[in-house]
Design goal:
283 residues; alpha+beta; four-stranded antiparallel β-sheet; 9 helices; 9 strands; elongated
Amino acid sequence: MTQPTPYPQHTALSLAASGVPVLPLRRGKVPFGNCTTCADNACGGRPNMKAPGPCDCPGVCHAWAAATTDPAVIVSPAWAAAWRRAVCVGYHPGGAGLTVVDLDDADAMAWARTALPATRTVPTTRGEHWIYRGAMASRNAVRAGVDIKSTMAYARYLGPGTGHMADLPDTVRALAVKEPSPARPAPQAVTVPAGPGGGECPHRTPTYLERGISMAEQRITAARSAIHATVYGAFLAVLSKHGRCGCLTDTHVARLFTAAQSKGETARHCADAWTNARTTLGL
């Protein structure tokens, strides 16, 4: 007797017949993990992970890139085990020429109703999927509670939805455009007295001084957080070694200030940190 087709697989076959690439999703509504051959993309993956396509593995590997419209793959033995464990059907919107605007809460839905043209909508657990005809780049968190799922992404299939599907508007495309990072201001020239003297260090060689300045520059530019504290600490370290012996010059100070300004510090912050470090050391 012929065994009944598992429900997720039946849904997947219906979607595939209409040109929508599908894949099984496991508990947690996420794709199945790669097999041992494909672990860590050791097999080379599907074509640069930029478009769906087969690798040598017959299994459900490579997440969204595994999505297919081929019924022979969907019912293959390798996929059968996944369908038996699947909790729902996923699909690759971009592969079907679609874009899903995923609205995750009531505030996001209220925003969409005033900001976006009406289109086909599908209820989700917490909000709605608004589906447009046309593909674009995917991007999460384009605003609070709003994700865009199209190319190189997957979405859950939650039913056909209601309403007429509209063409993808420019207002949605604009949401995925990343704002350029604000340019850091160019380092400003600032004159701060290095201290008395200006000759060679009487107890160390010039090489020792150069190494100390270089290490301070590296310490500042390598900082990923606590920039103010790092800059102050670097200034304090340099001054504790060379602040009394007269070997620091204005050129050395300018190098330290340039490093600090490359991390977003202003000339005023640099001057204040330098003065505070000198005061702390009684210079």
